[in-house]
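tool=predict chain=A
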Amino acid sequence: MELIFRKSWLLVGHQSQIPSVGDFLLSRMGEDQVILSRSKDGKANVFLNTCRHKGMRVCRYDEGNTKLFFCPYQRLVVRPERRPEGGSRKGELPPSPSTARTGA
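tool=predict ok
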């Protein structure tokens, strides 16, 4: 796995799959799950689907549209540009991603 997936370019998705700001989809890079997302500046971003602190998944939907992702363990908010922000107050959760396109 290391020789194949860590030393070459990998296709995780196509920009047509995330046409609008906030669109995202889950993909894989070898054994790692990644999020392909479109940020406010219109750029496509790819990052690991894990919180930097505890390794919790920050996205539980296969695709959709959201302004942010968050760690359910420590409530650390992660923007699609992969900029972590401080945790929210106890009991205050960020909104869930829209599942309008997924039908979930």
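The first helix runs from residue 2 to 5. Residues 84-94, 98-104 have pLDDT under 50 and may be disordered.
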